[in-house]
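Researcher: Final request for today, and then I'll write up notes for the group meeting. The sequence and the SMILES for pyridoxal-5'-phosphate follow.
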Amino acid sequence: MTVENSDMQLQANQLDAADPLRMIKDDFDLPEDTIYLDGNSLGALPKIARQRAREVVEQQWGRDLITSWNKHQWIDLPRKVGESIGGLIGAEPGQTICCDSISVNLFKLLSGALMMQRGRHKVVSQADNFPTDLYMVQGLQGLLGAAKCQLELVEENAIEASLSENVAVLLLTHVNFRSGVIHDMQRLTKLAHDKGILVIWDLAHSAGVLDLHLDDCEADFALGCGYKYLNGGPGAPAFIYIAQRHQDAFQQPLTGWMGHKTPFSFSADYHAAEGMNQCLSGTPAILSMSVLDAALSIFTKTSMSAIREKSVQLGDFFVQCLHHYNLFDLFTAASPMNAQERGSQFALAHPDAYAICQALIGHGVIGDFRSPDILRLGFAPLYVSFCDVHNATLILADIMQQKIYTQARFQARLSVT
Ligand SMILES: *Cc1c(COP(=O)(O)O)cnc(C)c1O
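Model: Predicted protein-pyridoxal-5'-phosphate complex:
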């Protein structure tokens, strides 16, 4: 290592020593030889989540069987977990519930929002939104017909100009999944409201890592993931937020028994529950939701403002490392250089991004590849240290200098990228 390299190492050590969140890393079970920079896709395993999984499987399901719906309050989990998430996104109680996936929840929110906007049928979204969001609008458009639901895609710089009185719903992902660009929630919500448009915010890359204030922004609807920065495990259930003022008018079409006013009256007629329970459809996935519930308890050790502050510092330090090891000579930044303008990830464009990502994984640094040419590295502040960021950059520099990624074994495409 050169003297200069040790300078960066020294800085990483100092930043770690001053990091108020550094002890939280011990709450996660991470493999020793891995630097995990993909918590934006699948959060790491909290030790308390593993413990809860064992308890729910062995004791609650194994011993207490069906009595657990009451004995261990399984029936209240969607509300309980929803409220915990509400506390992380700036939502007063009674507006957030945990259920299903983002895709399914988006179908519910879109349908409900369109029904509240009689006379309007346009749904404006971004061409580079996460595909499932667009697919769900297309599915609803197929079902209802374009006279009732019509998707209109715009580029990022044309969003404001597209907001007119004939738009029903503005559907945006708060943090772009590739570039990490953050939308100004307060401003866009206000501009949309001025034209009578309802806004659905997808918080997949925001919840658990940005300091969100949904109520203060007068958000209408939002939804997000349980398995990314909330660390709920693969396929963990998602969440829905509906502002209190909309809950009476809102109706969603997936009217399953768990959304019924009195599910255990087993009546033949559907009567929606009041408040957020109407968002539920079928029986909740108790194993997954229990694990998510346990994972969320880690957030009580800190605050979202402290998490965001570390996220910005990690991102800034990564950019500093990229400059230091001359990696901007080889990669193009596909994220804003100013950390205040991006979520907790950094995207680097390179024609061989796929092979570079595979080589990184082969050398113990897990990031991901997003088609067509993006190497995406995520910094989950609860368990990524400044030394992790520095070491990952050193490994990336080595892979590039020695062209390790050109080896055949790093070129083969796997089914999940
Ligand atoms: C990860 C992600 C999803 C995932 O949707 P699921 O239906 O929960 O699989 C949706 N939207 C965005 C923006 C995402 O980043």
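Model: The longest strand covers residues 167-173. The chain has two domains: 7-45+303-410, 73-300.
Researcher: Thanks, that's everything.
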